[in-house]
Amino acid sequence: MHVRTDDPDVRFVVGTVLATDPPEAGPLRIETVRSHQGRLLVRFAGHQDRTSAESVVGVRLLVEEAPSTDPDAFYDHELVGLTAVDGAGATIGTVADVLHQPGHDLLVLDRPDAPAAMIPFVAAIVPTVDVAGGRLVVEAPPGLLDDLSADAEPDTGTVVKPEGPGPAGEG
Fold first, then answer.
1. Domain of residue 34, residue span
2. pLDDT tens-digit profile of 62-97?
3. Using DSSP, how many helices (H) and how many strands (E) does the chain show?
4. How far, CA to CA in Å, does 92 sit from each of 16, 77, 109, 114?
5. Residues 15 and 53 in one domain
6. 121 with 105: CB under 8 angstroms?
7. What is the dihedral sign for C-alpha 101, 103, 109, 115?
8. Domain at 116, CATH number
9. Tens of pLDDT along 59-69?
10. What's the DSSP call for residue 123?
């Protein structure tokens, strides 16, 4: 089970009943919980054998959203749909997804007339998130939002040969 909570000991308690997505897969009541090699193993009532357990593989478990006490923490659904603007307020795109990577999260921006962009969700690049205002500010470092089309030739620069004798053996 891939867990996305800071407090699994509170969320996954024996006896807890969880709603599911899709709804017809649940609700599921937690019967046992244990950690094994860094993963959480949960057995649900009514799913005692492997065949039955396989019927709920891929089912998302839904819990009631707890209000965050951290002003810099956001749920994915709060970020998806926000308009991304640059420091001057010009629209860059819209947050289409949040990818959770080992180093940091990435915001996937759908951009008009440009390929989607992946923006590291770190304070240095996304200094302002205004969920109520429906926007976030992206201070993109040079090159982060550059468009590379498949038919464009990469700029390799100009090679300049120095004048005069070169290293020993040349010239």
1. 8-62
2. 877 666 677 778 888 889 999 999 999 999 999 999
3. 3, 10
4. 43, 19, 8, 10
5. yes
6. yes
7. negative
8. 2.30.30.240
9. 888 877 666 67
10. T
